[in-house]
Design a protein that fits this description.
Layout lengths: L1 H18 L13 E9 L5 E10 L2 E6 L8 E4 L4 E4 L1 E6 L36 H4 L6 E6 L6 E9 L5 H4 E11 L4 E3 L10 E3 L3 H21 L6 H6 L1 H4 L3 E6 L2 H13 L5 E5 L7 H7 L3 E3 L15 H11 L4 E3 L6 H4 L3 H10 L4 H6 L3 H7 L16 E4 L11 E6 L2 E2 L5 H14 L2
Parallel strand pairs: 1-4, 1-5, 6-7, 9-12, 12-13, 13-14, 14-15
Antiparallel strand pairs: 1-2, 2-3, 5-16, 7-8, 8-9, 10-11, 16-17, 17-18
Length: 431
C-alpha cells in the first residue's frame, strides 16, 4: 500500500507537470524602454499624472512628467496606472505546492529552535503558486519558514527566476520567533473546555527563549573552535545584521516580547500579527517597532471585539504613527497572497487614504524588510520592478495588468489559471 501511494503521488505530479510548463523568466530589454502617458503611483504617497518612466539596464533611469522626453522603445500606457511591485512579507510562497501532498511541503522542520534552517534553500522558483501571484502585481516575497518556536531564517526573492540563486535579492534577512501565548484554547479532545484557559507554562516557555538567546550571545562572545550552526545563525540578531520577526497578538505578549528581546541585546525587531497592538501604540512607537498586520479579511478574535476590528487595525496603527505593512497569513495563506493588494484596498475602504493604503504593500513593506534602497517605490536609480494596470490596483474589479517588469525584464502574465480560463471560456462561447 505504501508503495502504491508513493507511485500514485508521483503520477499525479507527473501529469500536472505535463499539463503546464512554467513560464520562462523574462529577458532584459535591448536598450531603453519608456512607459509614457500613465498615472504613476509612486508608493510613497505621491502621484504623477501623465508620467513618463524610462527603464534601462534593469533600473529606472528617469521618471517625470511630459517634459521628460521618451527614448528607446515606447510603450503607450495612457489612461492606465503604474505601480511599484507589490511585496508579500512573511509568506510560504515557493515552499509548499500542494497541501495534501506531503512531498511538496517544505516549509517546516522538526524541532523548536531552528535559527539555522534557511528557507531559501527550499524555495521552488518554478512553483505554479508563485506564478499566479504576478497577474495581480505581486512581484516580490519574503519566503519564510513555519513551525516551532524559532522557525528559521527567511530570505527575500523576486518572482521571476530559474532557481533560488537567481531569485534571491536579500539572503537570510531575519529569524522568525513565535512568542508563547498567555492563554490557550482548551483541548476538547482531551476532555478540556473549548474556551480559553490560562497557559500555566507561559513563564517556563519565555524563560526557555531567554536561555536560548543567552546561549547565542555567549557563543558570539566566546567564538568557540567547534561551531554550533544554530547559535552561529543567531549571532546576527545581536549586531543588527538580522531582524527578529516576533509573532505575537496579545497586549501582554507583545510587551513581554519587546522588553525581553531588548534586554537580551536584540537590535532590530518587527512585530508580526499584533492583533492588540492598537492598545499599546505609544509603547511600540517609543521602541520603534514596525508591525506587519495579518490578513484583514478575518473575523474578530474575541467575543467583545468590534465586529470590524481586523478590518480597521492597520488604519489605527498608521494613524498612531507606526510603520505598518500587510501580509496574507491565515487559512490558505499561499492562495490568499494573490489578494494582498485587495486587502490594502479594504483598508482604504475603512477610511485610510488610497495612496497610504498602497504603501502598506509597497513602500512601507520595503522599509520593514530593509530593501527600500531598490524596491517599494518608483524612483530614478531604483530597480525597474513595477506593473501597469488598466485600473485601480487595490480594486479586484479593475486591477487588470497589461505589463509587468522585474529588474527591467518584461514578464509573461500567463499562468495555468489564465490558460484554463481561455480554454473553457471559448468552450462555453460555442453553446
Amino acid at each position: 500500500m505504501k508503495h502504491f501511494i508513493t507511485l500514485y503521488t508521483w503520477l499525479i505530479l507527473g501529469f500536472m507537470g505535463m499539463a503546464h510548463a512554467q513560464q520562462t523568466p523574462g529577458t532584459p530589454s535591448e536598450g531603453p524602454v519608456t512607459l509614457t502617458g500613465g498615472t504613476a503611483h509612486i508608493g510613497d504617497g505621491t502621484i504623477i499624472n501623465k508620467c513618463n518612466i524610462i527603464l534601462d539596464n534593469g533600473k529606472i533611469l528617469a521618471i517625470g512628467g511630459q517634459d521628460l522626453s521618451p527614448v528607446g522603445t515606447i510603450i503607450d500606457i495612457s489612461d492606465q496606472h503604474v505601480y511599484p511591485g507589490i511585496i508579500a512579507p512573511v509568506s510560504s510562497l515557493g515552499l509548499v505546492e500542494i497541501d495534501a501532498v506531503r512531498q511538496t511541503r517544505d516549509d517546516a522542520e522538526l524541532g523548536e529552535y531552528l535559527p539555522n534552517i534557511r528557507s531559501i534553500i527550499a524555495y521552488n522558483a518554478e512553483s505554479r503558486v508563485v506564478e499566479t501571484m504576478r497577474p495581480n502585481g505581486i512581484l516580490l516575497a519574503q519566503t519564510t519558514p513555519q513551525g516551532g518556536t524559532i522557525s528559521g531564517t527567511s530570505s527575500i526573492v523576486q518572482l521571476d527566476a530559474w532557481n533560488w540563486e537567481d531569485a534571491a535579492i536579500k539572503l537570510d534577512d531575519g529569524i522568525h520567533l513565535h512568542w508563547p501565548n498567555t492563554y490557550r484554547r482548551g483541548r476538547w479532545w482531551a476532555g478540556e473546555s473549548r474556551g480559553w484557559t490560562p497557559n500555566k507554562n507561559y513563564g517556563a516557555q519565555t524563560q526557555a527563549i531567554k536561555t536560548y538567546f543567552d546561549s547565542g550571545m555567549s557563543y558570539r562572545q566566546e567564538q568557540p573552535t567547534i561551531p554550533n550552526e544554530a547559535f552561529k545563525a543567531l549571532t546576527g540578531v545581536f549586531d543588527g545584521t538580522k531582524t527578529v520577526y516576533v509573532y505575537a497578538d496579545g497586549e501582554r505578549e507583545i510587551i513581554d516580547a519587546v522588553h525581553q528581546l531588548r534586554d537580551l541585546g536584540v537590535k532590530r525587531m518587527v512585530l508580526v500579527g499584533g492583533y492588540e497592538a492598537y492598545k499599546i501604540i505609544p509603547f511600540l512607537k517609543a521602541q520603534e517597532i514596525p508591525v506587519i498586520v495579518d490578513r484583514v479579511h478575518a473575523t474578530p478574535a474575541q467575543d467583545d471585539d468590534d465586529y470590524d476590528q481586523p478590518f480597521k487595525l492597520p488604519k489605527l496603527l498608521v494613524e498612531g504613527g507606526l510603520l505598518v505593512g500587510l501580509n496574507a497569513r491565515g487559512s490558505m495563506e499561499r492562495m490568499s497572497t494573490r489578494n494582498l493588494p485587495f486587502y490594502a484596498g479594504h483598508v482604504a475602504g475603512q477610511g485610510l487614504a488610497p495612496e497610504e493604503a498602497l504603501k502598506l504593500v509597497t513602500g512601507n513593506t520595503a522599509k520593514i524588510l530593509g530593501i527600500d534602497d531598490q524596491y517599494g517605490t518608483l524612483s530614478a536609480g531604483k530597480s525597474a520592478t513595477l506593473f501597469v494596470s488598466q485600473g485601480d490596483a487595490l480594486d479586484m474589479r479593475t486591477n487588470r495588468l497589461t505589463h509587468a517588469f522585474i529588474d527591467g525584464r518584461r514578464l509573461s502574465l500567463e499562468t495555468h489559471q489564465t490558460e484554463l480560463y481561455e480554454r473553457y471560456s471559448e468552450k462555453y462561447r460555442q453553446h
